[in-house]
C-alpha cells in the first residue's frame, strides 16, 4: 500500500504496521526515559529537572506541506522548539500528533517524520510519544501538532524590555512567509523558507548575558512581534528601516505582490531586547552561530506610549502597525 488508507488510523493491525514498519524507522531520537517511543505505550517518560520547566504546543498547517527550504515536519519541530527557545528553555522532549488525509502518500509521511527527526537530532531532543489519525483535514493534506517541554537555562519573557535596551534581530526578515506565498502563487523564485531551530543563537546570547526579552516573529512577522513586546513591556520601540536585514528576493517579491515583508512569518529568527552595555558582545556571539550569522541591531527601546515607530530610509518617522491578520494564508 503506497497511500494512507482510512484503516491506517483505526487503531488495528494496519495502523500498527504503518507505525512500526514505515514511520518509526525514520526516527532516531525516540526518548531516553524508562518508557520511550519504541514502547508504544499510552505515554512516555522523560528525565525531570529541579524546579520549573517550559511547555508549549502548536498545530502546524501549511500549504503546500512541502515547500522550498522545508516541509510541515521541519516546521512543526522547529516552530515548537523555537517557542521553548525564546523563553530561554533548551528543548528536551516532544509529543507529536498527526492528522493526515486519506490518500496521502506514505512516502511523503515518512519524509515528514524524517524532517522532524533532523531537527530533533540537531537539538539533541527526543520525540517520545505521538498519535496518528486519518481523517478530514479541511483545506490541507496534513496537520502536525507538536507539544514540547524544555529545561530553563534562563527564563526570558516577551514583556521584559526596558528603556535603553537595543533591539536585535537574528537574521533576515520575511523569508518564510514570502517563500510560502511564492509557492502558493506558483512563482519560480530562488527564495527558501528560513525554517530552522534557533536554540544555538539563543544559547549563545544567554551565555553572554543581558538579554531582557525575546520573541520569535512567526505569524504577524516582525511588526507583530515588536508590537506585542512594546505593549506587554509598556515601552516604545524605535527601529531603523535601513538596518532591518531583508533579502533582495524578499524585497522584490513583496513589492510585486504588495505584501509588507515585516508582516509575514519567519520560522528561524528571534527578536531580542539586549542591555546596551553588552549588546556588541551578544551580537558577536549570535553571529558566530550558523542560524544567527546575519544578526543585526535594528533599533532601541525608549520611554513613551507603547508602540513601534520606524525611522524610514527617506528620513521620516512612521508608526509600524500591528498586522490585522496574516497576509499569507496557511503559512505555519
Ligand atoms: Mg512564539
Question: How is the secondary structure organized here?
Answer:
Elements: H1 13-23, E1 53-60, E2 66-67, E3 70-71, H2 72-85, E4 89-100, H3 106-123, E5 126-134, E6 142-152, E7 166-169, H4 175-184, H5 199-208, E8 211-215, H6 221-233, E9 236-240, H7 248-257, E10 271-274, H8 279-287, E11 296-302, E12 307-311, E13 317-319
The protein binds magnesium ion.
Residues 83, 216, 218 line the site of magnesium ion.
Write a structural description.
By secondary structure, the protein is an alpha+beta fold. Helices cover 29% and strands 23% of the residues. The chain has 8 helices and 13 strands. It has helices at residues 13-23, 72-85, 106-123, 175-184, 199-208, 221-233, 248-257, 279-287; strands spanning 53-60, 66-67, 70-71, 89-100, 126-134, 142-152, 166-169, 211-215, 236-240, 271-274, 296-302, 307-311, 317-319. The strands form 3 sheets. It has a 7-stranded mixed β-sheet. Strands 1-6-4-5 form a 4-stranded mixed β-sheet, covered by helices on one side. Strands 2-3 form a two-stranded antiparallel ribbon. Helix 2 packs parallel to helix 3 (106-123) and helix 5 (199-208) packs antiparallel against helix 8 (279-287). The two termini are 30 Å apart. The model has no long low-confidence stretch (mean pLDDT 95). It binds magnesium ion.
Amino acid at each position: 500500500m503506497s497511500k494512507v488508507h482510512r484503516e491506517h488510523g483505526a487503531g488495528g493491525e494496519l495502523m500498527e504496521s504503518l507505525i512500526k514498519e514505515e514511520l518509526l524507522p525514520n526516527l532516531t531520537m525516540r526518548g531516553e526515559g524508562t518508557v520511550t517511543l519504541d514502547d508504544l505505550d499510552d505515554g512516555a517518560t522523560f528525565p525531570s529537572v529541579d524546579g520549573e520547566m517550559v511547555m508549549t504546543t502548536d498545530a502546524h498547517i501549511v500549504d503546500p506541506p512541502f515547500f522550498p527550504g522545508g516541509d510541515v515536519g521541519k516546521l512543526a519541530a522547529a516552530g515548537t522548539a523555537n517557542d521553548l527557545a525564546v523563553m530561554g528553555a533548551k528543548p528536551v522532549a516532544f509529543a507529536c500528533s498527526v492528522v493526515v488525509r486519506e490518500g496521502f502518500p506514505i512516502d511523503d509521511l515518512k519524509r515528514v517524520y524524517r524532517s522532524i527527526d533532523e531537527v530533533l537530532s540537531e537539538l539533541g531532543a527526543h520525540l517520545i510519544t505521538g498519535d496518528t489519525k486519518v481523517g478530514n483535514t479541511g483545506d490541507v493534506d496534513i496537520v502536525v501538532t507538536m507539544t514540547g517541554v524544555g529545561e530553563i537555562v534562563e527564563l526570558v519573557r516577551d514583556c521584559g524590555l526596558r528603556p535603553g535596551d537595543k533591539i536585535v534581530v537574528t537574521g533576515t526578515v520575511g523569508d518564510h512567509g514570502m517563500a510560502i506565498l511564492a509557492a502558493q502563487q506558483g512563482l519560480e523564485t530562488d527564495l527558501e523558507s528560513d525554517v530552522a531551530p534557533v536554540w544555538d543563537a539563543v544559547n549563545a546570547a544567554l551565555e553572554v548575558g543581558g538579554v531582557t526579552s525575546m520573541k520569535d516573529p512567526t505569524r504577524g512577522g516582525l511588526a507583530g512581534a515588536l508590537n506585542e513586546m512594546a505593549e506587554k513591556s509598556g515601552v516604545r520601540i524605535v527601529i531603523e528601516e535601513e538596518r532591518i536585514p531583508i533579502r533582495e528576493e524578499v524585497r522584490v517579491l513583496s513589492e510585486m505582490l504588495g505584501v509588507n515583508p515585516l508582516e509575514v512569518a519567519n520560522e528561524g529568527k528571534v527578536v531580542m531586547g539586549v542591555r546596551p552595555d553588552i549588546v556588541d558582545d551578544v551580537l558577536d556571539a549570535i553571529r558566530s552561530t550558523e542560524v544567527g550569522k546575519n544578526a543585526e541591531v535594528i533599533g532601541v527601546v525608549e520611554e513613551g506610549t507603547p508602540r513601534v515607530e520606524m525611522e524610514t530610509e527617506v528620513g521620516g518617522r512612521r508608526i509600524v502597525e500591528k498586522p490585522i491578520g496574516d497576509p499569507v494564508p496557511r503559512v505555519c
